[in-house]
Design a protein that fits this description.
This protein is 62% helix and 0% strand. The chain is an all-alpha fold. It folds into 2 domains: 3-107, no CATH class; 112-294, Heme Oxygenase, Chain A. The radius of gyration is 27 Å and the shape is elongated.
């Protein structure tokens, strides 16, 4: 059970615990939730009727003994005198409800669809800066963009490795692609040792870092399409200058899904705007840097 369901449980508990005089003529109430049978299957169109019995109050309080609820909240709930006329119990329950409302605000998942929607224009602008899908693509143009990409990828990976929080490090380690670019550049005899690096946007917290990472990781999906086009246009075979855009091959989709899951669940909804700002800033740097390749 989640903190969200616990809030519903405690709201129901308030209905059956608050002294009758406090509700005046309010004699009915409603509980929103899911009813399941003994096997765990959802019971369709179920109707639940409650009364103000101590037995129901006791049952609801013990239903609230779940993970995701702070120990201090549970300790207060366990010690309540659940008499219908217990004013102190009512006040404690009201405090518990307020605490749980704050918990919900803190732990509600980030709005990933809003992130996608509000950065779509920025995404398309960057795509226009990397014209590798042109039918007239030649090796020199391709290599010039690989060199610029190397500067961008190197700047990102060199910054993220020492600065990312510990829980993000495994995500970064599994997704490094700088070495793939070096394989491609070596194949074409290009030297990236003196390649400059762009100045990245300021990233001072996890929301900023994950917003930037959203941009860098998102480029792996389009890379699969670019790889197929480049291989045909330039006559490249596996291991012949196509490693970067092939990326993680069949694992690309799964790695992207895992990243999106982490982004959605590790960043609270309240920080969605900060992630969007960081992603837009990273798209801006990426686009500006890649436009220099055509000059």
């Amino acid at each position: 059970m989640t903190a969200r369901r616990l809030l519903v449980v405690l709201s129901a508990l308030l209905l059956v615990s608050v002294p009758h005089s406090l509700f005046s003529q309010a004699v009915t109430g409603s509980i929103l939730g899911t009813v399941t049978d003994s096997t765990g299957a959802v019971v369709a169109n179920a109707k639940v009727t409650t009364n103000r019995s101590n037995k129901l109050a006791s049952s609801l309080i013990w239903t609230a003994m779940i993970e995701n609820c702070p120990d201090e909240v549970l300790d207060q709930a366990r010690t309540l005198d659940r008499s219908p006329n217990n004013i102190r119990g009512t006040r404690v329950l009201l405090r518990l409800q307020a605490q749980l409302q704050r918990l919900l605000a803190e732990h509600r998942d980030m709005d990933l669809e809003q992130l996608r929607r509000e950065t779509l224009t920025d995404h398309h602008a960057v795509e226009q800066c990397v014209p590798l899908m042109d039918q007239e693509l030649d090796v020199d143009t391709y290599v010039s963009y690989l060199l610029k990409l190397h500067g961008m990828i190197a700047a990102w990976e060199e910054w993220a490795a020492p600065n990312a929080p510990a829980w993000i490090q495994p995500l970064l380690a599994a997704r490094r692609r700088g070495q793939l670019l070096m394989l491609d550049l070596t194949w074409f005899g290009a030297d990236a040792s003196g390649e400059a690096r762009p100045a990245l946007p300021e990233m001072t917290d996890a929301a900023g870092l994950l917003g930037a990472m959203y941009v860098m990781e998102g480029s792996t999906l389009g890379g699969q399409l670019i790889a197929r086009h480049v291989e045909v246009a330039l006559g490249l075979a596996a291991g012949q200058g196509n490693a970067y855009f092939r990326g993680h091959n069949e694992r690309t989709g799964q790695l992207w899904k895992e990243f999106c899951d982490a982004l959605r669940t590790k960043v609270p909804e309240s920080e969605t705007a900060a992630v969007i700002v960081a992603a837009k800033a990273m798209f801006g740097v990426f686009g500006s840097w890649m436009r220099m390749a055509s000059k």
